[in-house]
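Data follows
____________
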Amino acid sequence: MTRTFAKNGLVRAIEAVVAAGGSDAREARMVAENLVTANLLGHDSHGIGMIPRYVDSLLEGGLAVNQHPQVKLDAGALLALDGAKGYGQVIGHEAMALAIERAKRHGSCVMTLARAHHLGRIGQWGEQAAEQGLVSMHFVNVISRAIVAPYAGADARFGTNPVCIAIPLPGEPPFVLDMATSAVAQGKMRVAYNKGDKVSPEWLIDDQGRPTSDPRYGVVEPLGALRTFGLYKGYGLALACELLGGALSGGGTEHQEGDRSKKRVWNGMLAILIDPSALPQKDAFVEEARAFLQSLRASPVAPGFDKLRIAGEPEREMRAKREKEGVPVDEATWKEILAAAGKLGLEASRVEALAAGG
């Protein structure tokens, strides 16, 4: 069974849950809007279904409320920041704001961010830079519990380790490539498990290292592992994220043994920002980008497809649809959110009323 909620009611409901955990009004609103936006864009794995995990992390001490990035190094175009285990929705926004200001001042900025709690959909931070006319590249690692197997390996050794590349485009919305280096995001296993759906055996292995279509191996014991996308290619990119987002940032890498029960999700990130307008070839960039896209879109549409798209377009199409029709939430996920609210002393009836627009 699936329920459908209007965007504004869902934001108010999630905002109330976050506030019940001790977050100030600004933080509660930022977290709620970020999560609901992920749902609007079709990335339910990074949406409101994360709330139960956040609440457990908060109660365990893995998530700290009302935090801001701590500056460990300020060398102009080079920043080293620590996220202090704060909500990634706030830490990510504020860290990117610092890096954007430096990129505009110096033409570029390299920023490392350590120990942020779950940064959510990394595309949001790429979009934040693109809105200011900046190119950005993001390499992120995950310290929680290992859930992805290395290529040729039979158990989990690292996280989903996302990569994002965002590029502002002349006269149209930006190119936003935002992807996990695993075959799919781990949250998609949770969504499939809650819905009772099967998954592709190309995505998952069981606890014996065998391909499986049962999403339970990505959610409950005995746990299996996600597979990397593109075989050894995704594996190589995942390791780059671990070394750049984790080791280089100082936030650490995923090698904790016996720590699989912890609910906290810490991210490290290396972000590289470039201001195209500071380059002598800035006019060529605009002209070549326009010419390339025009040529690309002239390709005939292959059988079985309705149109050719570039990264970012499917999400924008989904947002238009869900803003009009509402955000679908499966019943299992909604019950988990209500239960999480209860752990913070917030009654389910209050969350229901807010979500319904009351």
Notes: The mean pLDDT is 95. The two ends are 23 Å apart (CA to CA). Residues 1-60+326-358 form a domain with the Hypothetical Oxidoreductase Yiak; Chain: A, domain 1 fold (CATH 1.10.1530.10). The chain has eleven helices and eleven strands.
